[in-house]
Each structure stands twice: as structure tokens, then as C-alpha cells.
Amino acid sequence: MTVFETLESEVRSYCRSWPTVFTHARGSRMHDENGRTYLDFFAGAGALNYGHNHPLLKRALLDYLESDGVTHSLDMSTVAKRTFLERFDEVVLEPRGLDYKVQFPGPTGANTVESALKLARKVTGREAVIGFTNAFHGMTLGALAVTGNAKKRAGAGIPLVHATPMPYDNYFDGQLPDFIWLERLLTDGGSGLNLPAAVIVETVQGEGGVNVARSEWLRALADLCRRHDILLIVDDVQMGCGRTGPFFSFEPAGITPDIVCLSKSIGGYGLPMALTLFRRDLDVWEPGEHNGTFRGNNPAFVTATAALDLWADGSLEKQTTLKGELIERHLDDIVTEHAELGASRRGRGLIQGLTFADTSFADAVCARSFEDGLLVETSGFESEVVKLMPALTTTEDELDEGMGILANAVRAVRAAA
Ligand code: PMP
Fold it and tell me: Which of the four CATH numbers 3.40.50.720, 1.20.120.450, 3.90.1150.10, 3.40.50.150 does domain 3-54+315-416 have?
């Protein structure tokens, strides 16, 4: 028995899928203590969009630490925070015409979601929030209330209240007009739905099965929110920071959310950091009203600032689109080869999913991929989707190599079935 089994809680999860002990990592490769190397198509669940230990980010971090730069500072003003805010405005907000205020909540995705929900409720004086089927927003009570997965919800142990789920894009396979149900509930005084404070949505549902919302669906949602005076929150915790191509995943839809949640890759290096962005007029917080000890993780501000340099010339977005297309071509080959298994693919940019008619197949493919040196996880309620999420910095050769391992894994699992 290892110390992980004797001492660490049964709650541990990823180490069960990948039963080895990792030592070091660089770019898209991780190494274990047995000397084996793995291609990482998981990228810290979206926290490592720039790969492991990116040399430019590491240099900035080491320089900062060596100079005894402030590490922890709650929300005191520091040079590292000022530099980040100025650079974030210059590289991200200003070029996109986004006049957002920036809140530093606690450093996790769930922290930014909680702050967004709380702010929406404070601004509107309403308590109801609309979430979507198969959504994932985090494990704290407010975020869980707008999360779909029944197993995760059950973990709360108390009723999850003030949230109503609505069908996500394509939930009825295109058989019903978009938003027919929500629009009706909002206009019918007898519906039983209190006017919501906010709608919270992911543009692509990462944990919920790589479900991609169409741009026209997102635009119709933004329009509905505007007409009914409901705040629109986009949770870009997993799909933001370039995962789908553009810095924000909602850009191609041409919508401007009232509130945006960012975490995971915003720190750049895998260091904990989150942002809640909102329209200037929504900034009704009292000083200290939403506090927290770890809102000033300066090493993360430093690596976050260095990561923004990678966005300065626009090439990252183009590269991500091209690399996404490369993965799609590999997936199309797998889908064609295994048409009898009901294989299909979906995704956008460097978030891609592969499914099979037999929902247990994806798990077996991921397990086999690990044996052959590729880290990929599943997503969806039944773990029915192979979810491919390599770092944006993964080279084309590495993408070809990883997709080759995946294609072989599908063949091997099929042969053994
Ligand atoms: N929102 C989304 C869309 C996520 O994918 C996640 C994490 N997978 C979260 C929120 C929660 O983030 P964290 O695990 O850092 O609390």
C-alpha cells in the first residue's frame, strides 16, 4: 500500500485513472519515477494552456522569487498586481472594447463562480438563477446548485436551491425551437418561475461532455437576457484563455456578457488565480464585502503577465484553430474507421470530444491510452466522451503522435471487446 492509499482521502480521483507517480514535466510531456514519459492531452484540466513549465513564464517567476518579490499580499496593492492589471487591460480588455472592472476572488474556478452569482443577486435583488443541463460550475454550494451532474450534486448533503436548469443547445436534438420553454416561463405569470437574477452558461461544456453551443444559440440567449433584464454570466473558467481559439470563448458569437468568470489558465503556469470581470455599473460591492485570504497570489500575477505576452501578436489564436483542425482530421479518420461502433466527434479549437454508442468504451480507450503513454480523460455524466485538451503550445508532431496513440487504443479496445 502506498502513502496515497493509506493516508490520502478516498476522494482522490485523477490518480486512479493514471496510477503512477509523476516527477517532472515540460511542455506537453510528463515523466514518472519509473522513467516513463507521457504525452499530456489533459493540460491540468485546462489550467495548463501554455504547457508545463513554459520557459518564458518560468524565467519571470524565478526572477521574481529571487528578488524577494512579495509572494502573499491579500488584496494589498503590489507592483506585480499593478503590472498584471495594466497588461491585462492593454492586451485583453482594451483591444476587445470590453469596459470591465476586475475582481480578484479566491483563486479557484468555484470562487469566481460564487462571486459572480453573489454579485448578480446583490445587483438585482433577486435570488433565482438559471443554469443549463449538463453544466459544470464547481463544487461549492452556489456553484453546485447550477451544476447538472447528479452525483456531484448529491455530495452537497443539503438542498441546492434558487437555481433552475434549462435545456442547453441541442438538448432536444434540434426538435424544439431554441428557448421556447424559458421564454414561455418568463412571460407567463402563472409559470412559477421567479424572475431570475442571472443566467450562467458555458459556451462549450467541458466537464458535461464537450457540448458545443452554436453562436446563434448564444446570441439568442444574450438577446433573451437583455429583453428580460437578466444578467448574463459566461463561465469561461475552462474554455477561456484561448482554449477554443480566441482569448474569450464567447468572442465568435459577438456577445458581451455582463459578467465573466476566469480561472485555470489565467495564472499561466498552473498557479492558482481567478478573475471575475463585470460591467463597470455592476460594481456595487462594499469594500471587503466579498473577502478571502488568497486573492493576492503575486507569483501568479507575474506568470499571468508573462503569459499575456504570448497573446500580443494574435498568432496563438490562429495556431490554435489550425491545431484544432489537425485533431479534427485525425478524429474523422477514427470515426470513419469505427463507423460500426457509432463513433462521432465534436468540439471547437483545442477542446475536442470522441464518443461511441457504447458509453463504457471511452473509459476503456482512456485506460489503454495511458498504458501506451498518453494522458486523456473522459467527460460527460457517464464518462462517455474521450476529451482531448492538449496545451495550446503542443507541437503538430506531438499532436500527430498523441492522435496515433489514441487511434491504436481505439483499435485495441475494439479488438478486445
Ligand atoms: N467552471 C468550469 C466551467 C469548470 O470547468 C470548472 C472546473 N472544471 C470550474 C468552474 C470549477 O473550477 P475549480 O475546480 O477550480 O473550482
Answer: 3.90.1150.10
